[in-house]
């Protein structure tokens, strides 16, 4: 893969070209090949700028914060496996600000499997507080559709806070 030139070198190439210097002379002065200088000048003539244009391709799957988290984990624990990293990233994703849609997704994916894993049987009662995402109409419909018994929770109760 070709290395990317810094903006200063590209700008100096254009400035020297404007001053009337040839590609070979500019290349010798800056320590670059004449073809590299020619490509920079050609791009400048076409787009009137020397900065690199955005490239096509798929967007990143992880955020810069996730990438730094991976680097920190691997630096601290060099024997970390790929699966450990995937699990840590999934847990970090759950630390994001939760809204109603995310809450319903968590319930749909994890509630019944957790009940089975805890071997709670049939007599269990689901409990959550009066957070707006818990009392949203769509959330209530989801819980009703799954035929869950829900513990009634008094709103703004000082006794239970």
Automatic annotation (TrEMBL):
Q: Which SUPFAM superfamilies does this entry report, sorted A to Z?
A: Homeodomain-like
Sleeping Beauty transposase HTH domain boundaries: 3-50
Among Pfam families, the record links this protein to: HTH_SB
**Which InterPro entries does this UniProt record tie to the protein?**
Homeodomain-like_sf (IPR009057), HTH_SB (IPR057667), RNaseH_sf (IPR036397), WH-like_DNA-bd_sf (IPR036388)
Q: What are the recorded GO MF terms, alphabetically?
A: nucleic acid binding
Looking at the record's lineage, which domain of life comes first?
Eukaryota
Q: What is this protein called?
A: Sleeping Beauty transposase HTH domain-containing protein
Protein species of origin:
Esox lucius (Northern pike)
């Amino acid at each position: 893969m070709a290395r990317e030139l810094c903006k200063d070198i590209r700008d100096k190439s254009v400035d020297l070209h404007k001053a009337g210097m040839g590609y070979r002379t500019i290349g010798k002065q800056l320590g670059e090949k004449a073809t590299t200088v020619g490509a920079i000048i050609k791009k400048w003539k076409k787009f009137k700028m020397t900065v690199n244009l955005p490239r096509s391709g798929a967007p990143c799957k992880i955020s810069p914060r996730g990438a730094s988290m991976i680097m920190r984990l691997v630096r601290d624990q060099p024997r970390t496996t790929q699966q450990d990293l995937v699990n840590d990233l999934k847990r970090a994703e759950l630390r994001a600000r939760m809204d109603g849609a995310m809450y319903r997704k968590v319930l749909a994916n994890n509630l019944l499997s957790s009940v089975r894993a805890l071997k709670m049987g049939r007599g269990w009662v689901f409990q959550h507080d009066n957070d707006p995402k818990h009392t949203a109409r769509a959330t209530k419909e989801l819980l009703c559709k799954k035929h869950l018994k829900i513990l009634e929770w008094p709103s703004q109760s000082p006794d239970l806070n």
